[in-house]
Fold this sequence. Notes:
alpha+beta; 4 domains; 6-stranded antiparallel β-sheet; 5-stranded antiparallel β-sheet; 9 helices; 16 strands; 23% strand; rod-shaped; binds zinc ion
Amino acid sequence: MSKRKRSFETTESESIKLQKNVKALQELIHIRPDLKGKKVYFFPRLNKYFEGIIFYDAKEKKAYVYSVINDLKYETFSQWMIGLKNWGLFKGYRSALATIFLEPNPNNIVSLVQKESLGEGKFVGIIMQEISEGLELHFFDEKKKLKKKMIISARGIFLSYKVWVLDQVLQEIDLPFPVRVMKRTLDKISNLIQYIVSLKICYGQRFENVVQIRGNQLVGNNKEHCPFAFLENKNLPNEAYRHVDCKFIIKDGNICENCQKIYKTMQQIHRRFLAGVNSTKTVHASKEILIEKIECQKKLIKTKSVTIANIRSCLQKKIEKEEGEISDKMSTIRLLAETHLA
Ligand SMILES: [Zn+2]
Ligand SMILES: [Zn+2]
């Protein structure tokens, strides 16, 4: 067993007793008489601690914790914690992860994440934030975009967790450990964080031409025309359709198994489109395609009206010509008549 692990587990087992029982201090001295005269550290926040010294009154046969900052002694750890709060030495909530440690730098999740998220650590790209129920971890990609989130909630030393990928909560089936409240070793937590770091995200199925044909959604062939995939990041280089049952994480390849299914449909749509725009039913067509269709219709009508206009002008010319001929005849007749009358 490594030194690191041992110190965590010692802290862990002692923490259980500390939280279970206000008499924890007396029990602790009973189990660990070597702690008499030793320092203890109370962390109301993970980045703030108070120093105490355990001492034993042999006459009273009772252990006390001497609080350095306010020069007072307390019979229990909880009295010490309440005392510090009443003195206004820390305000607001007490972190669920906070507890009493036997070292000023407890080997806990916080120090693990802090250490591994720096430089060439295992958790590069993670930003950690303390929240009232525990810890919130934000996972960023190379482009500094927030992609995943994890909350580790603490109830005493028992931890539960929840993971989000692109704002979607992951189901337990996609996670390596149960999510419920349970005792977890630091190694398990480390493995869990590493697993989340390594998770590949599904960004949906791409088929450029189909976006043009179908637009914002793909609908089913059934009567209801239920959409089964929606377009995301429209007009961006990462524009893609995401299946309504997208898994959000990838097991194999570059896409989740449900988004993979869309590809065949998209090929069909593309082939049908190549065979002629009319094969796209109006209800399924994208706005762009509908506009194109309308433009096409307009052009047809325009061509027809040009033809009509041409016919009209031809007729007009013919009529004018005929009228001219008539008037010519008339004037000839008139001339003749006038001549004859003269
Ligand atoms: Zn249909
Ligand atoms: Zn997917």
